[in-house]
């Protein structure tokens, strides 16, 4: 089995382990029910074929295997966004981790909206 902490749905950060536990507890009869597990598959749609593959593997009693390492999976998702979803903004992880300067973000909030 692939690493249970590995994210399958990158939009909603749903891990393989969560999906497997959902399957074991709820015994879904169709792959689309994985959407009830923290919204898996309801974002950009990239992971839907992998959710279907996972469903088939679990139904057959096989250990879940995605078939590619995480970096390749992530890179293919970014390419998917560029070619299949060009009207949507790129996923947040398209250019690597977000680099936020919280001080600058807080300085842009008007004082009357800040909580003490």
The secondary-structure element order is EEHHHH
The domain tally reads 1
Largest beta sheet: what is the strand line-up?
1-2
Helix coverage percent: 25-40%
Total beta strands:
2
Radius of gyration: 18 Å
Averaged pLDDT: 87
Largest sheet: 2 strands, antiparallel
SS strand fraction: under 5%
Runs with pLDDT <50, length 5+? none
What structural class results from the helix and strand content?
mainly alpha
Describe the structure.
By secondary structure, the protein is mainly α. It has one domain. The protein is 38% helix and 4% strand. The radius of gyration is 18 Å and the shape is elongated.
Quick overview of this protein structure:
The protein is mostly helical.
Strand and helix map with partners:
Elements: E1 7-9, E2 14-15, H1 16-26, H2 48-59, H3 70-84, H4 102-107
Antiparallel strand pairs: 1-2
